Amino acid sequence: xxxxxxxxxxxxxxxxxxxxxxxxxxxxxxxxxxxxxxxxxxxxxxxxxxxxxxxxxxxxxxxxxxxxxxxxxxxxxxxxxxxxxxxxxxxxxxxxxxxxxxxxxxxxxxxxxxxxxxxxxxxxxxxxxxxxxxxxxxxxxxxxxxxxxxxxxxxxxxxxxxxxxxxxxxxxxxxxxxxxxxxxxxxxxxxxxxxxxxxxxxxxxxxxxxxxxxxxxxxxxxxxxxxxxxxxxxxxxxxxxxxxxxxxxxxxxxxxxxxxxxxxxxxxxxxxxxxxxxxxxxxxxxxxxxxxxxxxxxxxxxxxxxxxxxxxxxxxxxxxxxxxxxxxxxxxxxxxxxxxxxxxxxxxxxxxxxx
Length: 355
Known about the structure:
Layout: H1 2-33, H2 39-52, H3 60-67, H4 77-97, H5 103-119, H6 126-157, H7 163-189, H8 192-207, H9 212-218, H10 221-226, H11 234-250, H12 253-260, H13 268-288, H14 294-306, H15 316-347
Helix pairs in contact: 1-2, 1-4, 1-7, 1-8, 1-11, 1-12, 1-13, 1-14, 2-7, 2-11, 3-8, 4-5, 4-15, 5-15, 6-13, 6-14, 7-13, 8-9, 13-14
């Protein structure tokens, strides 16, 4: 049992790393497209602020992921393992195809699938799922509206300023907006896998409280488990933030090209507006504990900043492909992870918990 827990934790950390790889594009696509930073400089800059979020944000998003989507009664190592396998498979496939899908929603679908297939819809937390699904629409729309308004504002204010001078100054401003976006990304995505691992360790520790390995991994969580409080061990916080930052450094370059110039031609002003509006959305939702998609947010912001010159300036075919990947992510991973879990139950004798 403990060995399976350890393997599952390793897979979860791998998921965290691939999340950083896929979502590296979100943090640096526009700053690279405008040549404000070179790709290597941009990923290093983003990674620093991804990790810095550890010292700024509370564990609100981790708590939502750990106990706000499915009933904790159903959680065991096999549910989490199925969720992760389905999620990693989907993320890897989409990253290879250059589609900037949401790793967050893949993980959410991965959690829903095994619980729904194994225990039924009564053990899904409808309010939490509804909020997340609502923000599939809200976060890109908010990013789009803010990106559009910011861009119109700056275009009006700076219309008589020399274009070369404007570009030079806004490339510098992009360092700030990119840092803010990377910080918001860390505060949101950096906690998602963390919450899943934390609830896995809590459930495993409750079953095997005498295991020395689990005592080390769960640390001071023994007292938290006793009073049902949500607890994230310190080593897990540092590891998850470290791995997602490392994933950002590694980068998903094909996805970066899709988001950089694949949606709309990006200028330094538009890049700043996209990053600033995306950063605002991510930071607010992280503080609220809502696990939104950074991919959705930045894509909406890029589209919004390109609308000032008319809808024809946006490359809607690229946007259409991205939206289809968004729409399919949660249901696709629900089916894949649910199928993996039922194979474990019916073919390998994994027991369902008595609830």
